[in-house]
Every structure is written in C-alpha cells, then in structure tokens.
Write a sequence for this structure.
C-alpha cells in the first residue's frame, strides 16, 4: 500500500481498521492527561494497525490559552501524512476557498500535495460532544477503531 497515494476507499478502510497502542494502558494515560481542565496538552502515542502493521502516531494538542480549542489526529508515523484530524474551536479555508466555520474534520486525500488540506463540518452523530475533550477523544478512538 502506497501511503503517499491512498484512494478514498483505502483511507476509509484504514480509518476503520483495528489499531492497538504499542504500550499497555496508553489510552488510560491519555485520558488522565487530557482530563486537566486548563493548560497545554501535547501528547504523542504510537499505535499499530493489527491487520496491516502500519505504525501510526496519535497526537492530541491543546494550547495554554484556549481550553476549548484543540486538535486530535492520527498520522502515519513514517510519512507524517495525517489519516484523520479533528479540529475543535477553529475555522478552516479549503483549497477552493470555501470556509468551514467552527469545528471540522480532515481526511487524507491524494488530490492535493498536502494530504489533509480539505476539511468538512463534523457529523454530530460521529462526534456528539466536542465541547468536552475527553468525550471527543473517546469518540475519536471509537471512530478510528483504536482499542487497548
């Protein structure tokens, strides 16, 4: 599989494929770290695809000043292409200049050199409570099939 040129179907399959942390209790550690109400969060944890053996990095970031603005993404460790990224509390301008106002999600796309440059509004069925980073993280792990 060419991680530099994935089709939309390959992206969907990778998002839904089973992934495990490389270290026991990694998900519990993340939940403990993100449960702080204020302050900076900058976490990287390695995940491995069970079927395909692809190594991913799960990254969670929240700056010091805006507790309601954060990002959760899953990227290919060796390529730095993001498979999926959830951005909360920020806007986005797509390559065609359409504006996404507020919370949005990015999916890998081989249509642009920067694979995650297109964003879409979040489906509230998939992410019903993004105002809480812990709930959003738990929904993200369900959506991307990360299981400890």
């Amino acid at each position: 599989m060419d991680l530099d040129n994935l089709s939309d179907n390959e992206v969907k399959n990778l998002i839904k494929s089973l992934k495990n942390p490389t270290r026991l209790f990694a998900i519990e550690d993340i939940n403990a770290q993100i449960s702080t109400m204020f302050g900076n969060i900058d976490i990287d944890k390695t995940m491995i695809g069970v079927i395909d053996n692809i190594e991913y990095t799960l990254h969670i970031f929240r700056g010091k000043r805006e507790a309601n603005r954060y990002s959760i993404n899953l990227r290919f460790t060796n390529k730095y292409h993001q498979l999926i990224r959830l951005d909360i509390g920020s806007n986005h301008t797509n390559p065609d200049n359409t504006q996404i106002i507020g919370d949005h999600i990015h999916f890998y796309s081989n249509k642009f050199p920067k694979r995650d440059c297109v964003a879409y509004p979040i489906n509230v069925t998939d992410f019903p409570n993004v105002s809480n980073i812990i709930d959003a993280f738990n929904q993200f792990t369900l959506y991307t099939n990360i299981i400890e």
